[in-house]
Input
Amino acid sequence: MRVAVFSTRPYDREFLERARLAASPDAQFDYLEARLDLSTVAAAAGAQAVCAFVNDSLDARVLTRLQQLGVRLILLRCAGFNQVDLKAAADLGLAVGRVPEYSPYAVAEHTVALLLTLNRKIHRAHARVREGNFALDGLLGFDLHGRTVGVVGTGRIGSSFARIMNGFGCRLLGFDPQPDPACEQLGMAYVPLADLLAQSDVVSLHCPLTPGTRHLIDAAALAGMRHGAMLLNTSRGALLDTGAAIAALKTGQLGSLGLDVYEEEAALFFRDLSSAALQDDVFARLLTFPNVVITGHQGFFTADALTAIAETTLANLQSFERSGRPLHAVNLI
Output
């Protein structure tokens, strides 16, 4: 089967090729740097499957064109599927497979890295030391031991993050429609979101992006947080209303913000834009705050996770070739 792989970077090709040669050497993978959208969909001509990533667009128009080109399978090399119009895919007879889990530890550990960087001002300290400034003024942090950490979404990643924070001696609060018994065994108390926000010194977002969770953290939610609390988002950018977050940072209501995702990241992330003027004024405003740390959607970026993503993608492809259904199918709910 021929597969058009969009949003490809050298590391994608390295790990996918390794998995392809091991599992399905007869498959043909065409690697494309372009992001999949209506302007690039024609590049899938001749392919029976496309492989897409988090910022590719698979709306009804793109899916219709893919189906017209002969594509029968959408392989998502990510866990989230908010970028896919599942109803349109079902109507068009397109199968959709995803990577439901790869390395929850990778994202959870990256979240902790953001937390520690913000709390102990590692980013500022590093810059000072390189300039010969060893003063400690403005670098004051707090002990995590005994602090309250709120985890919004306790799936594989959220629960992994909770276990790490439990190791720091933190009090754990959780918000999830389906409480995890393993988190409860850690001592996590599941509470309504408003209570979690009001009581937590650190709030970390680990839930999927759905119509119901879009801007879950808006101006009202931020106003209900403990004054000066830290907010972390390593899940999906649109869980957070960025404009509201900026307003809360300006007043000090939000004490610090760590982001690995951004709601308009498709125009920015996974590319080198260092020689171009930044066109996103909201993102540029975020960068002016000393108590904001942003990474470019790299939480998943470990060798372990990339290996698992590639192997699961190939398993989805092989399953579809055998049965007409990906191993990890995404169905219209």
